[in-house]
Amino acid sequence: MNLHVLYEDNHCIAVAKPPGVPSAHFDGVTETVDRMVRDYLKAKYSKPGNVFLGVVHRLDKPVSGVLLFARTSKAAARLSEQFRLGTVEKRYWAVVEGTVASDAGTWEDWLAKEDSSPTAEIVRPGSAGGKCCRLHYRRLADLAGRTALEIQLETGRRHQIRVQAASRGHPILGDAKYGHPWGHTARIRDAIALHARSLEWEHPTLGTRIRLQCDFPEFWREQFAPLLAMMEENG
User: Fold this and answer.
1) For this structure, is 34 an active site residue?
2) Burial track 196-205 (b if 16+ CB lie within 10 A, e otherwise)
3) CATH number assigned to the domain comprising residue 109
4) Annotated catalytic residue: which of 34, 39, 60, 215?
5) Three-class SS of residue 78?
6) How far apart are CA 63 and CA 190, in angstroms?
7) Which domain holds residue 25?
């Protein structure tokens, strides 16, 4: 699988994560994005042995888009702190089932996920193991019973966008875990219509803000061509 590098310097590297591939090493899975990046760096710089690569955030396996890694331990610590403090701006584009009524809004819920469970769930505020999650959305387009949203995460809980959308009756297309499988379209069964469109962070040594944008996987143009044209016009 070819690696699409969006940004690279001595401290950071950002790539376009393909759908269906885990972000980082997990339960013995051999094909992961972090391994692809390590192999790329070893080959490009002729590095023997292990290559340091700091995993500072993740995208769910079926999600595509901008994925950032650190190339030094100092950069890893500083970037991880930015994600922890919420100073990294994360914007996603999603296609959901149904028509979202409001042009824009905020979704706030409490979310819980046990390590042994493949899914997360909305729980009562203050519940044991629950964490508050919040996102802001803007409607980009709607067509034929589908709505395209731009989503800005304020928090970054696992499966957050997927759960919050599904709990409001608008599951992300293709997301079988939360109510909308692709059905007969088996070729894209490992992908969902959720894309990390852009990421903005402070460079760990220079202090300047860097903003990257990532194009969509090819299946978006195959599945959502008319809707995607409206999204790009309004986005």
Assistant:
1) no
2) bbbbebebbe
3) 3.30.2350.10
4) 60
5) helix
6) 9
7) 5-234
